[in-house]
Every structure is written in C-alpha cells, then in structure tokens.
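Build the 3D complex.
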Amino acid sequence: MSDLQPAKDLIRGYYGALAEDPVAAMVRYCAPDLLWRGLHPFHEITGPEAVADRFWLPLAAALQPIQRRLDLFFAGQNTLEGAEGVWVASMGHLLGFFRAPWLGIRPSGKLAMLRYAAFHRVEEGRIAEEALFFDIPHLMIQAEQNPFPPQTAAHLVQPGPMTQDGLLFDAQDPAEGAATLGAITRMIADLQVWQAVDGPALEDELRRSWSEDMLWWGPAGIGAAYTIPGYAAQHAGPFRRGFAERRFNGHLARFAEGHFGGFFGWPNLTLTPSGGFMGMPATGRPGDMRVVDMYRRAGDKLAENWIFIDLLHFWAQLGLDVLGRHRALGESGETAIG
Amino acid sequence: MADVQAQKQLVRDHYAALDAAAPGKSAAALAQACASDVFWRGMHPVHEQTGPEAIAETFWDPLKRAMGPMQRRPDMFLAGLNYIDGQKTTWVVEMGHLMGLWDQPFLGIPPSRKIAFLRYVEFHRVADGRIVDIASFCDLLALIQQAGLQPLPPQTGAAILTPGPRTHDGVLLGPQDPAEGRTTLDLITAMIEDLIAEGVASSLEHLAKWWTPDMCWFGPAGIGASAFFKGYHRGHTIPFEEGLEFMRHYGHIARIGEGNFGGFFGWPSMEMRSTGGYMGLPAGGTADMRIVDMYRRAGDKLAENWIFIDMLHFLNMQGLDVLGRLRDHPR
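Done.
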C-alpha cells in the first residue's frame, strides 16, 4: 500500500483552512477543475470558487461559527475503475449556532449539528475530486421542522465509534485495513442478492456479516437501529419490503484503513417504492439513491455503520420537492435570530 | 318540495336508539330503523357493508368499545329530495362530532385516554319508513392526530377542531321554506358545474363568483382548514392543483339542499393522479377520492364548506397502508 500520510496531512490542513476562510482554502487546496459532488439541492459543481460560493459561504452564514467535530478520519487506495487513487475520508458533524435561514430552513436560534461524510481524492498535492454528503432532514428535525412521516428507527444526534479510535491520523497496519475491506465486501455480496425480507431468514443472513450488538446509524427519515433483530425490524426489513424493483449501480470509491472503511456511489442504487418505505406511497417509477456507508469492524464482523442517503434527491426525482414544499408552507423564517 | 319531516324523525329516532345502545348491542339498535338489507358505505378499512349486523360488527361496536358511551354533537341536520335522481329519493343528513372517552384502541389506533372528537357526516336514504342506504364518513386521520400521532408530512392547512356553521343555525329540525332550499341547491350545483368545467381549478374569478370573501373551507385532516381566498388558495387549492392531476369526475350519489344548507357525496367522487408534493408525498398512481361537501349559503354566495375525504382509502390505493404502518411505527 502506498504511503497515505501526505494525503491525510493535506486534508487536515484543508479542514483547518476551511474554518478560517472557505474561499481561500478551496482555492489553495483544490485543483482548479475540482469535481465536487454535493447532495440535493447542490449536486455536481466544478471548481473551488463555485463550491465555496454556493455551498460553504451560505452554510457559514447560517451556522456561525462552524466547528468541525471529527468522528472518523482515514485514507486508502481506491481500486474501483474510474476513480482510482488515494482517497481520504472523514465523518462527523459541522456544529454551529443556527442563527440564519439555510435552504429555506427556519433557524432554531440554538446550536445545531449537521451530520456529514466526506471523500477526497488527492492527486499531486491537490484535491482533485470530492464527495460531500450531509443530512439536511436531520438538521430540519433539530430545528423542529420534520418534513417526513414517522421514522421506523430512532432520531438521535449520532456519536462516533464506540471505541473512540476512529481518527487515524497516523499510519496503520495494512493488514487490518485489508481485513476491514474484506468484511465490507462480504456484506455487500450478501446484500446484492438479498432474498430474505423479514423474520429469522433475514436475521440469519445479517449474522453472517454483523456483530450481534451492531449499530446502524441511519439518516433522518429512517433513523438509528441497534442489534440484529432491532435492525431487521426497524430498517432492513422495511427497506427490503419497500421496493418493487432494485438495481445496484456499484460504487465510485471503496477503501478501508485500520478498523474503519467505507464507500460512496453516485448513485449506488435505483429503487422503485412499492408503498410504505418512509411512510410514503408507491410511485410506479424508480428514483436514484446516492449513499455513503462508513463502517467499524470488530474481529471479522461489522459492528457499526453510519449511513448517509441523498433522500431529498431521491424524493425530488419522484416528484416530491421537500425543500420547495417547506418554503411554500411558510416555514422558512426569513428573519435572522440574534 | 315534499314534506321531509317524517324522514327526519325516523333518523332522529335511529340516532337515539343507536346512541343508547351499549357496545355489542348496536345491531339491534340499527335494526329498529334500518332495513334488514341496509347498504352502508363506510371509510377505509370498513368500506361497504350490508345489514345491521355487519355494520355493527365492523364499525359501531368497535367504536363504542374504544370510546364508551358517546355524546352526539350535531352541527348540521337537514333533509331533502335528491337532485341527482330527479328527486326520486329522500335523504337525511347529519354532520357533527361524536365525543367519547378514548380508552381502548380503535382500528388499531392507540387510545389517547382523553376525550376524542370523531368528526362525522352521514347521508341516510329513507324509503317506506326505513333507512335503506347510509353513507357514513368520518375523519380517522383527525382522530389519529388526537392520539398525538402524525403519520403524514405537515399539512398545508390548519389542524383544528372543526366548528359548525358560524350562524349556529344548521340543525334544521323543523320544516323550512322550500324556496330557500332550492336556492341553496341550485347555487351548489352551479358552482360545482363551473368548478368541474374548469378542471377542478379554483381561480380567483371562480372564488369571487361563487364565494363570500370570508369563506371558510373546513377540510379533512391531512389537508386541514383554511379561510379567505388567499388562505384557501395557499392552504388547499394551489397544493391540490399543483400536486394532483384531475382524471375524471364520477358524479354524485346524492345532492340535497334545505334552508341555507346543502351538500353531496360521491362514491367515489373523483379519480386523481398524484403528480408529487400533494400532502407532502411523492408522485404515484391514480386513486379514488370519496368525498362529502357540505355548504352554508349566505344570500347568493356560499360562505362555508365542510369537506370529508376517505384519505386512508385514497392513500391505500396508492400503496400506503397508513393504519398498518401506524401499528408498527406509530411515532
């Protein structure tokens, strides 16, 4: 495995600089033709200034000041075709005092924590490609503006790994990373051919890849679930039963380091709701799911999983503009607080 | 217009017997005024039933077991000959709330252990001294909300306890001037024909033509209540027109007017296709809306409108079993 440390150091410097001055940081650390993938309503943006202008500056005006609270930080060599190279990933929250509207969401006037996961491809000392996932509905719920029907699992501001050792700033034993990537890949293989949708058959399938006391830290709209039976009842079952058709499109990047690993796709899945998923009706047509999964491995099983899904994009493709409806309901609150 | 006092009295006697019946005794109470093959149109998940036994078993006994003795609080009571069938049939309508102490689950909905107001409207067809047809609409989503549950995304209108007519004169126990009822019925019919001709679109011109400026639209839970042209546009007509494609109008089964009040029901009234956003839900297939509209007329305009839609049926036809999901994931 190639040395990942220079790329990690670059990203740590980038995060520090972003907090000071987003425009200068983007220009200094990113390639001029940076390909940035952000969730709905941002989508793909090219070039550092455009990303700073459209994403970071409005966010920094709403969450003041932004404190990055890292829970995971690791790197790896991605071998998936089309996005090969050294990637650095991180996950945690962007915490701020939510004092001005953002995307039409009414500010709470209290602190808020925006869940995020980031993937950065580093090439020749610059960030050439970046995927930034963030949980907008999770922020809306914190600000008491839940746009969705009741979740199957729990709404929580989510912690990092139980083992408190997810920040891999130093070099790691490559064998551990390989074992983690192996565990993730085995689980994906099971998922791609899923047959069981509930009951003991589903739980037995999950036991092949997951620890008994697993945690599934899902996105707002679905929530967080604990233990194999809990996960089967509160997400895996409802999810598998909720779609008439499914297609796996694969991932752009997938890698692991130490006990941690993850992937993202753009989109990973194309799914046709059959009614019930997230309390929504059948749609008769498919939508794309852009997904991030981050994992902690314990022994030869997966013990924790943090998930981000671009649900606003998925539902927008299916005719539901969640943020637009939120504005139309007069919930945006255009007056800044404090 | 023919005298409808005898039919009104029959329905009042019917309600007195039904309200006095203990849980498990509803069938006998229904049998006092209803024909043995009375045809019942109820909300999802009850749907159509035939005969007092089936109606009691699927609706009244479960409701009474859930909420104990119920206090009937009518806001509107009227009768008339049916416009739809050339005045061949006579219908008696009552709208209001049934209040009970909600201590046991109803249709799988967990109880609030507080009083609950079940919003209802019933259309009864009376023939040969018996009730032969009942269309019984109630707002189950509003009841779910009273249990502190919100199975659907935020409403465009207000969630309130729906009031009766502003004029407090909707309970027409005695005979009315037939000319007033005919005027109300004609106004409702003209407004509806205009609305359908416009593809069920409520332009400002349409509203100004048929409605008073301070009109109230007391819609079902899931949509909510709104008032005044601006509020009605924002709270109902714009989301309805933008989020639904009007497929067809099936027509109504009964439409009557008496005094300043009138209304109709369809089974279903309309077929709609969800194009996304309506009620905070994505685009889906086509589905039926079973609808009741009740109106108050003020002079030559309509002033208030009470609407019931079998929302659980409309959503179930689109693959969303609200009651089923509520049992597994209430909050």
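The radius of gyration of chain B is 19 Å.
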